[in-house]
From TrEMBL, chains A, B:
Ca(2+) binds at residues 53, 55, 448. SUPFAM superfamilies: Metallo-hydrolase/oxidoreductase. The lineage of its organism: Bacteria, Pseudomonadati, Thermodesulfobacteriota, Desulfuromonadia, Geobacterales. Zn(2+) 2 binds at residue 78. Substrate binds at residues 237-239, 369-373. The gene is rnj. It comes from Geobacter pickeringii. This is Ribonuclease J. Zn(2+) 1 binds at residues 80, 82-83, 146, 168, 395.
Amino acid sequence: MIEQDTISTPAGLRIIPLGGLGEIGLNMALFEYGDDIIVVDCGLMFPEPHMLGIDFVIPDIAYLRERADRVRGIFLTHGHEDHIGALPFVLQEISPPLYGTALTLGFVREKLKEFDLDGYVDLEVVKPRETVAAGTFEVEFIRVSHSIVDGCALAIRTPEGVVIHTGDFKIDHTPVDGELTDLATFARYGTEGVLALMADSTNVEREGFTLSERVVGEAFDEIFPRCPGRIIVAAFSSNIQRVQQAVDAAARCGRKVLLNGRSMVANVAIARQLGYLRIPDGILTDLKELPRLPKEEVCMITTGSQGEPMSSLARIAMDDHKQIKLEQGDTVILSSRFIPGNEKTISDLINHLYRRGAEVYHEKVSEVHVSGHASQEELKLILNLVKPRFFIPVHGEYRHLVKHARLAQMVGVPAERCLLAVNGDVISFRDERGGIADRVETGRVFIDGKGIGDVGEVVLKDRKHLSEDGMVVVIIAINQYTGEVIYGPDVVSRGFVFEDESQEYLDETKKIVLDTLAGMTIEARTDWGEVKQEVRRVLRRFFNKTIERRPVILPLILDM
Amino acid sequence: MIEQDTISTPAGLRIIPLGGLGEIGLNMALFEYGDDIIVVDCGLMFPEPHMLGIDFVIPDIAYLRERADRVRGIFLTHGHEDHIGALPFVLQEISPPLYGTALTLGFVREKLKEFDLDGYVDLEVVKPRETVAAGTFEVEFIRVSHSIVDGCALAIRTPEGVVIHTGDFKIDHTPVDGELTDLATFARYGTEGVLALMADSTNVEREGFTLSERVVGEAFDEIFPRCPGRIIVAAFSSNIQRVQQAVDAAARCGRKVLLNGRSMVANVAIARQLGYLRIPDGILTDLKELPRLPKEEVCMITTGSQGEPMSSLARIAMDDHKQIKLEQGDTVILSSRFIPGNEKTISDLINHLYRRGAEVYHEKVSEVHVSGHASQEELKLILNLVKPRFFIPVHGEYRHLVKHARLAQMVGVPAERCLLAVNGDVISFRDERGGIADRVETGRVFIDGKGIGDVGEVVLKDRKHLSEDGMVVVIIAINQYTGEVIYGPDVVSRGFVFEDESQEYLDETKKIVLDTLAGMTIEARTDWGEVKQEVRRVLRRFFNKTIERRPVILPLILDM
């Protein structure tokens, strides 16, 4: 731990994105002025395929850790995992109050309970158009519509001017919960003058406007009455409006609603308790009733829309579920996005559902999903309402940030005031001037089980190597004075070749090791480093030549 | 090897798909009548992500192997890997003549050379509208357009009637090479009467018509003149029409063409030699000239469009290429499909190209790629021209086959004559009746390096397990009479935890193993099976409790 007083107090306003710029996920940005820091969002990312065995990825908060006593609050725009998911890890190191709307904090509380952190954290519920003071900052929450209810943008008033952070948003003129994106407040700040706008870049490649969430309800109303058998709707459990629409469509067809999936049950309970979800009396039915319900009265709402192998939807598709066996006439609606990287898994899921005889609707063939992010025309609208002096595209892969900066230039922000920052850049503002002034240490921290950050590049590289051609362990005991082989070589492999059929091959491997040792001088043979290197070299060549594989070769020389 | 004469001669016509039904890839079907068998296509599949370390997947040809002497020929519809890629492996077991068009066999010959099989195989070039007799079968080749030139459908005349196999096709009314899908021949067979149609289901989910290949040339002509710097076009090297259009567009802008990628160089050479590709004099330039060429005169045509990590396009994107360093003003055109499963890798590639300052065009934002497969209206057209008695959807995932069968019903094929077969089903026809009558052994064979089929489920499961949490090897030498620990325990890990920082943790692991051994009776301690099981059990619990990981635990007990 660095001594706090050795850390200088910077001049002007500094905005430092720690995650979310150049990637979708782990959104986190900090605002620093004098001795005050506030944080916007604290998200995680689900691992990419090459991050073998990793459970979550969170931003590296080294910069924040060293300034823990200056953090005046964490402001949460909404309750998605890529905005709140890193909290249980980050709150083990810093413990400022958390500010967010009721549902956002409802989801946060549930998460903190899982990690036994509930009760240790100060959760402050804020309503849209309310303002919170935190050190020198004043933060107003501005309602936005998104694929989760109770989302907000933030207007952050600083001594250098107002910065608006959109959070994740779209402009839905007919939202299911009636909560419109508060364009008037954006306009008010625009009239007053805004130093900088940080805006969601996710859908910057899409032309036009994003469709209203209500379109999905209309699709449900078209599909549901045509379904002769059971209906299964798979959606993200945080998408409360989506759940509401599935419930309403079920009610209109006289179907019971059964909830499936741990997070679906938990989030529906939270949303109902806080008044964000209205389920008509008598319609909600326990999953245990499923076998007794007539098929045409069943509407299951479930998680597992990404084809997660352990989810119950995947088990249903593989005909490996206790309570439900799909049949001809049943219908599955995947009411969610094909998240990039999951396309193949979801496609496999759909094929299995067809094998079971079910009909499947998904976003590629039907309007059973709409995005929660603004498309080009909405992004232009916000830019024109807010009229920021500076523009900082956030929440996107690198190409999204580039294209969002171009869009801002199209509506009149000068190129030199479109700041294309990446994680760790220090965006500095002083006296109406601004730019990327510095960099701080940043990066990704891998979480594997309970371990935080102990899985680094070396471990991942080893896992990748192991995954490709497996591992061969060679055990030899050598007398450290005479160089005589006392034991072995024993050869054991995993993930390399069929072990029961390849005894001959492993015997040949042993012989090669013995021959190699025999060809070495006594000096070399009593130098374990030398022996290991030679065994590796010879076997690498042997495996490559005979079967073109490159397993991890682990020679173990026993001191005896 | 089963004795040939124990294998019965079946009655009627039997069609047995060995691959490609219920999956995209490894297309292979056999036709059997009396003692004669012919094979249509012989493709491979590239491995899915869960097939760790696998290079290729090919169909299991057990059924064919046992009837090797009855195989009268392998008929190839076109030269894509999923139709010819398994040949080098299959031809090691059976060696009938191969029939195909000139370019198809040109690509096959190149492939056989790689495996030192060239010269051992009888390659018979066939032209469209020519007919080949093979045993009791007569096979006419019918020109079709596709994303490779010189593709054909097959009309297979059998004693039970004519079966038409479309191969991969689209109906391109303005093909770049002028070779139209030969609708007249399809119609002629339709008029005569067709027993069964087997048709490409890839694009059955797409409404309307697939765009003409020429659209891509128009997109090139629009983009090329606007590019201030270098142009890099990434495409599949087998897509000769695409290469032709890139060459033509380059020529019109006064750019030199540089070919990059081993298969691009090879396939262009084959196509030029056979007259399928016309490159104007003086335009083709060696890659070594690249550093000396003015930027606005460069058009590189390269492989690597799927973001393959070792391809030179990936290295260019990572700024790790010897001859080329991208700059602002350079343009990359990904002129190919985002193959399902590769989306994330391609998306990462695009982001890196933007980081280098390049502009990127791809199929999601521009018409720089069109599909080679027929959409719904084209599929209906072929069905109506051929008017088959039976319909068998092929070349598709399971949902595609289901939807293609429905499409056939829409145009009038009775439901009971739409045969929804999967790999290994025996589709039997006799006296105008037909149906799925039987099943034969089938499956997928994994190729890893030189090994054919020696990587099975156990090895893959081990690789997956290794990839997730790595491996912990525990070495102990125990006196087999006294149960005394003579050596160790030594603990070595790979892909598990940071080794340099976790000595303490591994020491604790050793202590637990010692304590476990101390707590065992002498009888148990001298029973290696018992010791291994106990060490595994105790460590599994320890790792799970302390860091929630589940590595492969490999206890090695040395006999001493």
